[in-house]
Amino acid sequence: MAQLLQHLINGLAAGTIYALVALGYTMVYGVLKLINFAHGDVMMVGVYMGYATAFALGRDMRSSLLGVAVVFAVAMLGCALLGFFIERFAYRPLREKPRLTALITAIGISFALSYGFQLDLGFLPGAAPRAFPEVIEPVEWLVIGDRDVVVWNWQVISFGIAVALMVGLQYLVFRTRFGRAMRAVSWDHRVAALMGIPTDRVIALTFMLSSALAAGAGLLYAIKDTSVSPLMGLYVGLKAFVAAVIGGIGHVPGAVVGGLVLGLVEEFVVGYAASTWRDAVAFGFLILVLLVKPGGLFGRVAAEKV
Amino acid sequence: METPAIPVPEARSAVPASLRGLLPVLLALPVLALFQWLMSDAPFASYLLSVVGVNIILAVSLNIVNGMTGQFSIGHAGFMAVGAYISGVLSLNLKDVALSFLPVAVSDQVFFVVSLLVGGLAAALCGFLVGLPSLRLRGDYLAIVTLGFGEIIRVVVQNTDAFGRALGLSGIPQTSSPAMVYFWVFLTVLVARRITGSSHGRSLWAIREDEVAAEAMGVDTTGYKVRAFVISSFFAGIAGALFAHFVPIINPGSFTFVKSMEIVVMVVLGGLGSTTGAIVAATFLTLLPEGMRSLFTLLGAEGSLAQKVDQIRMPVYGLLLVALMLARPQGLFGTKEIWDVLPRWIPRKRRGLA
Amino acid sequence: MRRLAPMLLAALAVMVAACEKKTQPAPSGEGGTQAAQGQGAAPGGAPADANTILLGQVGSLTGGQATFGISTRNGIELALKEANAAGGVKGKKLSIRVYDNQSKPEEAAQAATRLITQDKVALILGDVASSNSLAMAEKAQAAGVPMITPSSTNPTVTDKGDYIFRVCFIDPFQGFVMAKFARENLKLNTVAVLQDNKSAYSIGLAEVFTRKFTEMGGKVTAVESYSQGDTDYRAQLTAIRKSQPEGIYVPGYYSEVGIIARQAREVGLKVPLMGGDGWDSEKLFELGGSAIEGSYFSNHYSPDNPDPRVQKFIADYKAAYGAVPDALAALGYDSARVAVNALERAKDLSGPSVRDAIAQTKDFPGVAGTVTLDAQRNAVKSAVVLKVEDGKTQYVTTINP
Questions:
Q1: Side-chain-facing half-sphere of C47: CA atoms under 13 Å
Q2: Could you report the per-residue pLDDT of A45-95, keeping only the tens digit for each?
Q3: Nearest-CA distance A110 → chain B (Å)
């Protein structure tokens, strides 16, 4: 029973992070109808930015509240900038081209980033994983019994950050002018442009927002797993995408639910079956959902407009 | 959009209609025999050419889905793995069996072909299972599902003792030969070419250009997409099965996401929809590293520099995709084929076969 | 088509009926040697030109395990430089050609074929990863070119035939070493195992460890597994903690072990970790930090060995490459020196004579232990156990076969 509870907590901790990354996929898909394959790799770059910042700050500084804030701010701003450049120079020129070209471009960027970061040249970090500095000093927040159930401070903190980011996003999308513009672009970007909405700016901002969100999620992930590696973007990104599709891509609360479900499923496979089957189960689950409910748990298969 | 010429009925042809489908195959056989005879004394060349051949099969078959149909599969290595492992295990178990009325060498080839077909059919079955749920939806779902499929295959192989787990499967009889590989290259190209010219191919082009419009015109889009995907998976399985019979050991490391991406790069570079492009790009990209090796050996700069070049290959592939999409999204050949621009001396009516 | 199906079916039936056991086994492995010798006159070591003897190496020089391949190459280069400075072999200089295999067996086979047929090397030095060495071994055996693998520890590699040798111990021995050390030196009664299911090496070590440790009266409380590239091991470690072991055997690679150590401490496992030679890298200390302190692993050699030969090797290596050589560099060095020694003793440079010379290697003083090749062409040698202390390794004991 205690073990079940522990797995539940671990699963939720992993799931909130998947949910945050999945939100980025869903937002970009919403406005552009593009699977931003490079999303996970942008996240990875953000984590390396945080890694470098944490080292620049030094040991004492980085575990203070201000230090943590600086690490997150640098990574999120840096990623927003990266997202802006990718959108401006790789995706925007292709907006009126067939959708396949943009998808291939996204895959290309993902490839260039994840393998570029494995090079041993200059400032690039090399293929081996690095230990992520402990920006949040791990402290046991709650211990039940003889360490039967342990809840860590970083689990609580990352859960808190994730929930705050999600609530903020929900507010942004449904309660602000920018959110309304975003929804309009997502509905039909040509009509939105006719209505006087600056679609280019809205799309660019959406990209920056989703990239910043990814950087935040990536840092939480790195803190959880105590390490950072060039391939983490590919793996986490894929899982988050699966989460987004399970919840129904383009659907904001769906992405959150999908992330949590996937986090729990994975944790229970590892805890009660064999860990090596984890990835197979995650993707098998995806195929199953697509078979039964092609639009995901919450999404609807939209009739296509000509 | 280039539309292939309308097939002209060839009533006056001397060849009986029932045999016409087989004619190209029969014509190819002596050429292959000659080729095999030339290769028999050059183990390195035949190994390299076999690798090139397998990559051509992979690229041409992926082109049926990614190029002609406009869908996007990025898990081709997964289907290759299915073919390689299924046929590998079969051959391994049939190693000591022979047909009594045939010489051992011939009966080995018979079993080889049987296990090739079994490998291909297993991959085709997987293609059907993967394709059906994801092809009902729009193209981008296929990308993610095929990617996931590749991962599932890897996990299954790693956890199954019969597949040699992480170390890999070795001891598969090395019965493949360049002639056999190129026989299948030939078949794959033939099938791809026939598809483009058939009504099936027209439907695929229609789906590629506008799925909604195609559906409105009464094209059973899901059916055509799934069929194209199954054919493509079948040939990927054949490629894997061939691969398993000339590489001494197969292990999951040979069928990763990276391998899938290499095939995608071949197709995109060659031009989505062009079989000729796929062949040229596959040949070029497979021979390139080996050519570099020769160049560096010649320059005496082996070691560090050659190593650096090997290392930057992957990120360069990524940037190449982006650059291609921005500058020349149709790839090197677009949707053109070599047989569309063949000189005039080839009778016009032959082009009707295209 | 309608008429075709029954015909095909009939053909199939005839074929199935006609199946029989092959009367003579297909030429492969040991049986193929004679055939290989017959036609192997041209390969089997015609030197590139009259004054040099060309050797070949294929290794993983790029990708995740590049450090292994590069260390090995450095060790080999150092040994050949020394041999050339001492006058070469039979009055000829030695040179080496190195190809990358991108950690893929098909590339390894391709590179080995290129070395054998295009470059016509006298001898091939293998890779670290056993599956790549297996692919090369097949090609080398078929062509009758001797091959020495520096550090492929999977037992099946040298089973490929009588041209294939190695200068390191094999996986079962390493598993045995740690079982013995855990039982006799650390006096542990219960141990849990955490293996990497993506690596044959890890699975092999874990199997032998489990068997030997149980035979010696210990108890394995739990066997958990992960996949290379994973980053969250808390679920497995939580399950292990439940079984309350006195130690954990983690025969994986340093890139995962460092993180496992951190997370093990985090879930409250304070017991020592134990592992194999996959731990051997400077990166382990960076990744594991304080969590990896007090852990033990078996290895091929210890840089603490006071033997002047070892210390000279370390000093030379440091001067050339600016780092303390790891076990893979030491094994690369040893493999090249065994090769040079055999080439000197061989009556000519043809494949069979070099093979016979290598097979006679006995009591060869290497930096990673004394090399004697047994009838299975494996080196019989002792292993050392190292302890992680203050961010470096400390020699603990030597365990003999």
A1: 16
A2: 999 999 999 888 887 777 778 888 899 999 999 999 999 999 999 999 988
A3: 7
